[in-house]
Specification:
The protein has 282 residues and is α/β, with parallel strands linked by helices. It is built from 13 helices and seven strands. It folds into two domains: 77 residues, lambda repressor-like DNA-binding domains (434 Repressor (Amino-terminal Domain), Orthogonal Bundle); 194 residues, Endonuclease, Chain A (2-Layer Sandwich).
Length: 282
C-alpha cells in the first residue's frame, strides 16, 4: 500500500525500532520489550514494520519501557501528523479511477477472506464490465475527475480473478435496494442481475441478500469491507476510511454478523434477485 499514510506509519515504525535499539541502558530485543509491556511479540513486529497503527497509549508505554519518556511528545506528534485514516477522494482520484483500482487489486490480492456489506451498489467483485462502467462514469461526473472509466473497468475486472484462486473466500451481503437502484441502463442492470444469479453456489462466494422487508437488529448503516482481520475500509462521499485497530475491526465484524442474520442465501437469494429482475422495465 503505497500511500502517504502507510509511508508515515512505516517511518514511525522505524523510529520505534531506533528507540528500542538505542536504549540508554542497552538495546532490548523485540521479545524482551514485549515481555516488559505485556504484549504479544507479534505486536512489536507489526508496529516496527508499519503493519499496525499504534495508539497514544502504545507510544507512551513504548517510550517509557525503553527509558525514553522524553520521546513521548515526539512520537505522539508523528502519529497526529499522519495523513490519518481519511483518504480524500479529491487527492486519490487526481489521476483518475484507474490507479485507485490498481491499488485495490493489490490490497484484495493480499487477502484471503473478505466480509463485505453493500448498501449502495453491486459489489465490485461481482460487477459486470458494463455495470462498473456506468458506476465510474457517475463518479467522474460528480467528482470531476479524469475520464478514465475504461482503465478503471479493466482493473476491476482483473481484480475479480481473485475469485478463482484456491483458498479465497468472498462473504458478501447486499441490501435488496442495491439490486433495484437504476444507476445504469435497464438492460445493463438486467445483465448484472443475471451475473448475480450465476455466482450463487460458487465455492469462493457466499452471497446473502437482505430483503427490504426483512426484520433488522441494526439499521443498514454504511457499506464496508473487512479484509481478513487486518483492516476495514469504509467509503463515504468525500473520502475512504482505512481502519486497522483491533477494537474497530471487531466492531465491524459484529455489525456484519448481525446483518447476516437478516439475509437469505442460496435458492432464497436467487428468488429475490429474480423477482427484482422481473420488475425491471426495458
Amino acid at each position: 500500500m503505497s500511500t502517504d499514510y502507510q509511508r508515515a506509519r512505516e517511518e514511525l515504525g522505524r523510529r520505534l525500532r531506533e528507540l528500542r535499539m538505542g536504549r540508554p541502558q542497552g538495546r532490548l530485543t523485540g521479545v524482551q520489550l514485549a515481555q516488559r509491556l505485556g504484549w504479544q511479540q507479534s505486536k512489536i513486529s507489526k508496529l516496527e514494520n508499519g503493519r499496525q497503527t499504534p495508539t497514544d497509549d502504545d507510544l507512551r508505554a513504548w517510550a517509557e519501557a525503553v527509558g525514553r519518556p522524553d520521546a513521548i511528545a515526539e512520537l505522539q506528534s508523528r502519529l497526529r501528523g499522519f495523513e490519518s485514516h481519511i483518504r480524500s477522494w479529491r487527492r486519490l482520484l487526481a489521476a483518475g479511477h484507474g490507479p485507485v483500482q490498481e491499488t485495490w487489486k493489490t490490497i484484495v490480492g493480499e487477502s484471503r477472506t473478505l466480509h463485505v456489506w453493500d448498501n449502495f451498489a453491486i459489489n465490485g467483485m461481482l460487477q459486470t464490465a458494463d455495470y462498473a462502467r456506468s458506476l465510474f462514469q457517475c463518479y467522474e461526473d460528480l467528482r470531476r475527475t479524469p475520464r478514465d472509466a475504461e482503465d478503471a473497468v479493466r482493473a476491476r475486472m482483473r481484480r475479480q480473478e481473485w475469485l478463482y484462486r484456491p483458498g479465497k473466500q468472498l462473504n458478501v451481503l447486499m441490501w435488496e435496494g442495491v439490486l433495484r437502484a437504476q444507476i445504469c441502463p435497464p438492460e445493463v442492470l438486467m445483465a448484472q442481475l443475471d451475473r448475480l444469479l450465476g455466482v450463487v453456489g460458487m465455492n469462493t462466494v457466499r452471497l446473502g441478500i437482505v430483503p427490504l422487508d426483512a426484520a433488522l437488529r441494526l439499521p443498514p448503516g454504511n457499506g464496508f469491507w473487512i479484509l481478513d482481520d487486518r483492516m476495514v475500509t469504509v467509503e463515504d462521499w468525500h473520502a475512504e476510511l482505512w481502519l486497522d485497530d483491533v477494537e474497530t475491526i471487531a466492531l465491524y465484524r459484529r455489525v456484519w454478523d448481525t446483518l447476516a442474520e437478516s439475509a437469505v442465501y442460496g435458492t432464497e437469494a436467487q428468488q429475490v434477485i429474480a423477482r427484482v429482475r422481473r420488475s425491471i422495465k426495458v
